[in-house]
Amino acid sequence: MRNSWSNRKLYQTLCRKKTFTDEFEPGKEKLKRVLNIFDLTALGIGSTLGCGVYVLAGTVAKSIAGPAVVLSFIVAAIVSSFSGVCYAEFAGRVPKAGSAYIYSYVTVGEFIAFFIGWTLYIEHTIGTASVAKAMTNYLDALLGDPQKRYFKKHLPMHVDFLGEYPDFASFFFVIFIALIVAWGVKKSSTLNKAFTMLNLLTLATVVASGFFLGKLSNWNIPKSEIPPGVDGGNGGFSPFGWNGIIAGAARCFYGFIGFDSIATTGEETKDPKKTIPLAIVLSLFFVTVAYSSVASVLTLMWPYYDQDPDAPLPVIYANMGMPIIKYMVTCGAVFALMTTLLGCLFPIPRILYAMSSDGLLFKCFSMVNEKTKTPVLATMIAGVGTGLLSSLFNLEQLVEMTSIGTLMSYLMVCVCILILRYKNNNIVSQDLDNSEVHIIYKWWNASNTGLTNKDSQYVSRVLILVYTFAAVIFCICMTNVNDCEGFLKLLLTIIIGISIAFLIISMLMLCRLPQAVENLSFRVPFVPLIPCLSILLNLYLMMELNIKTWMRFGIGIIVGLLIYAFYGVHNSLEDGKQRIINDKEHKQEMKISN
After folding, report:
1. CA 38: distance to chain centroid?
2. Is 373 within 8 Å of 184 (Cβ atoms)?
3. What is the DSSP secondary-structure string of 82-97?
4. Angle at alpha carbon of residue 380, lines to 379 and 381, rounded to 5°
5. How far apart, in whole angstroms, are the C-alpha atoms of residue 286 and residue 545?
6. How would you write the pLDDT of the chain (594 residues) with one tens digit per residue?
């Protein structure tokens, strides 16, 4: 009996959901609300529109999609917008610091919330380290590789999974940015806006000069004019066909990672329920326009098969005899990297702060400086950890691990949106007939214009679970079917067909269920279609990552789970008891004062 009681208590702890009041009580807020719509949009653009705009378009155009890289960016933007609108609705529902961590804590439970929060921490840390590494590599190459030559000679590192030499420059760059973030949210936001404006000004110059100097003939180069020995496909606008456009979109998708940093500012934003959703949508729109415009002028100015994969824009302007614009673009890339570095580092202390405030991480992470109104200690610890990663590891290894946490958090947010949309929020429950046959009949024939109830909520969660499981099976089989032969290939094909049937049927049944009636500042359109498509696409991209990437990332996850097992579970229980006591005392004080 004692074991049964303790197991039930553990289960309740792992599934415990966080609650919060919509209105924040005066004097209770630790962080300062100073950010407006312009600040958040600049943060989203700066985090997303980084080095990729100067490199990614040329790489994809050269050997993957050709001039149709423009369509690849548009397809990637549509896929990203599915997750973006889910983030936007959730940000309106839960205007607190912590992004997908707090979203999953409110809707799913504590264990999943910790898992997502820790995953986000790892993803942002690795992403920031990769940006810092890319920035120092870029600057070092611009100056003739002085750091690389010196440290490879005097302090080489002969370890397979580490870099060739310790990158001290990247470490100090990260610490410098961490000091700016710790200095104050308004000051770091002002600097971010300045860097973003310089970045956008550079891109505007590129687009204007590109449309003036571009030639439409570069979008329709016949195969006969492609030099021998060059992989130029079949020529024309889409030399690698539809497969090239989709493969390019999968590559371009990672250029849109970063808008979720907006969602971590819930406690530092004025009117977060309206401002955060609007900022997410605006930043995605502006970034899509920028990527598509740069991709267009890039392939109009110079043949796609002759693009430089590492620095396409400076090489093009050098070849065209325009050194001034070449150096402008080079400086713009530096500002873009600085902006991305600031935007990537900004969410990390907010995630640590949110998890620490809930008792899942060490209390020191939730300490807020009285002068700066920022979690200074969490910021500096995040900066040191990120700096060490960037100085010790290879850029390729860092980049490979960046996307798993992002895709996983996107997936969880979409699942949470479905759970909330079909949640029973009616005071008076309207149960269906208890007959099993009658219940199954009503599952399929339920009116989606009715009110939610306990049965419709239960059915929706079963269907969401079935859809997600079928999506996992479908994605695993799809990513491996082409590598198999004979009976195994036939078996995987049959499983794919069965999983597609489950996906379609479960989504259609969700369409027939009533949704919760709520007054929200922003709602995801076409539910359940958009969240379901986002779940499928995010899972597919996750399955495309190689096993070594999953193993490296898994080490970080294991460390996090050990922290939760030996610290978080017990401490969150104690914090929960203390919060209940404090709430009772506060209510009694309010009664006495009234």
Report:
1. 20
2. yes
3. HHHHHHHHHHHH--ST
4. 95
5. 28
6. 455 545 556 666 667 776 654 444 444 555 667 778 888 888 888 777 776 677 778 878 888 888 999 998 888 888 888 888 887 787 777 666 556 777 778 777 788 888 888 888 887 888 788 788 877 877 776 677 788 888 888 888 877 767 788 888 889 989 998 998 888 777 777 887 888 888 888 888 888 888 888 888 889 888 888 888 777 788 888 888 887 888 788 778 767 877 777 876 766 777 777 788 888 888 888 888 888 898 999 899 988 888 877 678 888 888 888 888 888 887 877 777 788 888 788 888 888 888 888 888 888 888 888 887 788 899 999 999 999 988 887 766 676 666 677 777 788 888 888 988 898 876 554 444 444 444 555 555 555 556 788 888 889 999 999 999 999 999 999 988 888 888 899 999 999 999 999 999 999 999 989 888 887 777 888 899 999 999 998 888 788 777 777 887 788 888 988 998 888 777 766 665 665 565 566 556 655 555
Q: Which residue shows structure tokens 């600097």? A: 191
Looking up tokens 């895709």 gives 407
CA distances 485 to 473, 480, 492, 493, 497, Å, are 19, 10, 10, 11, 17
User: Which pTM does this prediction carry?
Assistant: 0.78
Q: CA-CA distance, 291 to 503, in Å (whole number)? A: 33
The structure tokens 């996750």 sit at: 542
For residue 65, the 8-state DSSP code is I
d(C-alpha 58, C-alpha 69), whole Å: 9
Q: Which of 58, 65, 71 is nearest to 248 (CA)?
A: 65
What is the distance between the alpha carbons of residues 102 and 19, in angstroms, rounded to a whole number?
10
Would you say 254 and 73 are in contact if contact means Cβ atoms under 8 Å apart? no
> Contact, 374 vs 31, CB < 8 A?
yes
Q: Helix and strand tally (H, E) in the chain? A: 22, 0
In three-state secondary structure terms, 19 is coil
Q: Specify whether the CB–CB gap between 585 and 579 falls below 8 A.
A: no
| CA pair distance 382, 346, nearest whole angstrom | 10
Q: Which residues touch 126 (CB under 8 Å, ≥6 apart)?
A: 389, 398, 401, 402, 405
Residue of 555, 570, 123 whose CA lies nearest to 362: 570
Q: How far apart are CA 229 and CA 552, in angstroms?
A: 38
Angle at alpha carbon of residue 411, lines to 409 and 412, rounded to 5°: 65
Encoded tokens for 443:
């599952």
| Cα 114 from Cα 18, distance rounded (Å) | 12
Residues in the chain: 594
